[in-house]
Amino acid sequence: MVRNMTIADYEQVYALWMQIKGFAMRSVDDSKDGVARFLERNPKTSVVAVENDKVVGAILCGHDGRRGVIHHMAVMPEYRRRHIGHRLAKKAIENIAADGIAPLAADITDEA
């Protein structure tokens, strides 16, 4: 199931981020307080994929009123190749579009 992310998901999302090789974290922005502020400004744009009450994928996505940005996208390695990333991206893009935002940018890093 893909649903909007809330701050209650933070611990599981953070643990997911920590599993991803080469995942770039910023101590202030990606702290619980930083993510809480981000979600307060963008309450409907970030999404998580949940299976059996476990967060297995997440996108931290938001906008400044003009442009949307996917900041972090991750899927647990053992859940890849199940189209979870596709479903997350589709939902995040739909959520951004619902806020009237058309341009969307993403920073892409391939796990080596």
Short description:
The chain has 112 residues and is of the alpha+beta class. The protein contains three helices and five strands, in the order βααβββαβ.
What this model shows, in words?
There is one protein chain. With 112 residues, this protein is of the alpha+beta class. 31% of the residues lie in helices and 26% in strands. The chain is built from three helices and five strands. Strands 1-2-3-4-5 form a five-stranded mixed sheet, sandwiched between helices. The longest helix is centred in the last third of the chain and has 15 residues, at 84-98. The protein is globular and about 35 Å long. The model has no long low-confidence stretch (mean pLDDT 88).
Provide tags for this entry.
112 residues, alpha+beta, five-stranded mixed sheet, 3 helices, 5 strands, globular
Topology, please?
Elements: E1 2-4, H1 10-19, H2 32-41, E2 47-51, E3 54-63, E4 68-75, H3 84-98, E5 104-106
Parallel strand pairs: 4-5
Antiparallel strand pairs: 1-2, 2-3, 3-4
